[in-house]
Design goal:
The protein is mainly beta and 353 residues long. The protein has 3 domains: 1-46, no CATH class; 50-85, no CATH class; 87-353, no CATH class. Helix content is 0%, strand content 24%. The chain is built from no helices and 20 strands. It has strands at 5-7, 18-20, 31-33, 36-38, 50-51, 65-68, 73-77, 81-83, 88-96, 112-120, 124-128, 149-151, 154-156, 244-246, 253-255, 314-320, 328-329, 333-337, 340-345, 349-352. Strands 10-9-16-19-18 form a 5-stranded antiparallel β-sheet, with no helix packed on it.
Length: 353
């Protein structure tokens, strides 16, 4: 039914000021009695004025109501524009923290979180993308974990830094804990453990095996889906733990692999885990860095060298295109996949729902 409403003298004032036309069946769509306007009996809908934030009336009166197409919500003017009860919608997310640096052992991968979260229309959500840890000198260096990534109160914990020490008599052999734990450093005197991972985000790093015959080797960093391997003997180097594959962007990509353990002298280091983990090296070269924006752990190295840096993290949101506002900061990459818009943050920024 189509009903056109007009008013005498340009305004509706009680029942006398309201006119209504009927549809072809003769049924009225509006009734006014004693100043009360009702659409009783009409099963259609009411379409209010709508427009962007920039198109708001310049001199509104109190009670002016409209639909804001920028914020995807109704708003009313009462001295200032205020949104009505916020509409909420669900988004899918992938949050990966920065990977830990390699030292002697492999760096632990950044913690990884996936799931769905409810966003309120008109609310701005800050996204923090964690940097990877800086490469660590094997002999006496300061271990460096990555940095956390954050979205909507969800925190992906940074990857653990690897242990650093000389091949014997050192004081730091145990890997740091984190989203995934760092691998234990090579040590000819003790059987040291890798760092612990965070439940639901990653796994522990590998140990060093406590062997006594050179060339000593180190444990691999933990990954998002598997522990780092323990080096079990001379030349048997700890590989990094595997990461997790995600298709949130529309194609499968693996994130958060642990770094491979380092080798002393000329041995071959451990292999980095799938998902950006850096390969371990020996006393002749620097450990391989974790891949940027995967949260991969850095590869370990041998005495006299430096472990690889951890890979930076990433935050990816999959928003129903019907709800996507286009309001972001931080220059994310925006693509589409099916009925969803994909917002990929490789550095910190924000999204207004």
């Amino acid at each position: 039914m189509t009903t056109i409403i007009t008013a005498d003298d340009g305004a509706v004032s009680g029942s006398a000021g309201l006119k209504s036309t009927a549809d072809s069946s003769g049924t009225l769509g509006l009734v006014s009695t004693s100043g009360i306007v009702t659409t009783a009996g009409n099963t259609g809908g009411f379409i209010p004025p709508s427009g962007t934030t920039a198109q708001r009336p310049s001199s509104p009166v109190a009670g002016t109501t409209r639909y804001n197409t920028t914020l995807n919500t109704y708003e009313v003017y009462n001295g200032a524009w205020q949104t009505l009860a916020a509409q909420a919608y669900a988004v899918s997310y992938l949050i990966v923290a920065g990977g830990g640096a390699g030292g002697s052992g492999g760096g632990g991968a950044g913690g990884l979180l996936t799931g769905t979260s409810s966003l309120a229309s008109g609310t701005t959500y800050t996204i923090t993308v964690g940097a990877g840890g800086a490469g660590t000198a094997v002999d006496g260096g300061t271990r460096t974990s990555g940095n956390n990534s954050v979205f909507n109160g969800l925190i992906a914990i940074a990857g653990g830094g690897a242990g650093t020490t000389s091949s014997s008599g050192g004081t730091i052999q145990v890997g740091l804990s984190g989203g995934s734990g760092g691998g234990a450093a090579a040590d000819g005197n003790a059987n040291d453990a890798g760092g612990a991972g965070t439940s639901g985000q990653g796994f522990a790093g590998g140990g060093n095996g406590g062997f006594t015959t050179a060339p000593y080797s180190s444990g691999g960093g933990g990954g998002a889906s598997a522990v780092g391997a323990t080096s079990t003997g001379a030349g048997n180097y700890g590989n990094g733990g595997a990461g997790v594959a995600s298709s949130i962007t529309g194609s499968s990509v693996t994130y958060a692999g642990g770094g491979g353990g380092g080798a002393y002298f000329t041995g071959t280091g451990g292999t980095g885990g799938s998902g950006g983990g850096g390969n371990g090296t020996n006393s002749l070269s620097v450990g391989s860095a974790g891949t940027a924006n995967t949260g991969g752990g850095g590869g370990g190295a041998g005495t006299g060298q430096t472990g690889g840096a951890g890979g930076s993290g990433v935050v990816i949101l999959s928003v129903p295109t019907a709800n996507y506002t286009g309001t972001t900061s931080g220059s994310p990459t925006v693509t589409t996949s099916g009925s969803n818009t994909i917002i990929k943050f490789t550095s910190s920024g924000s999204y207004t729902a």
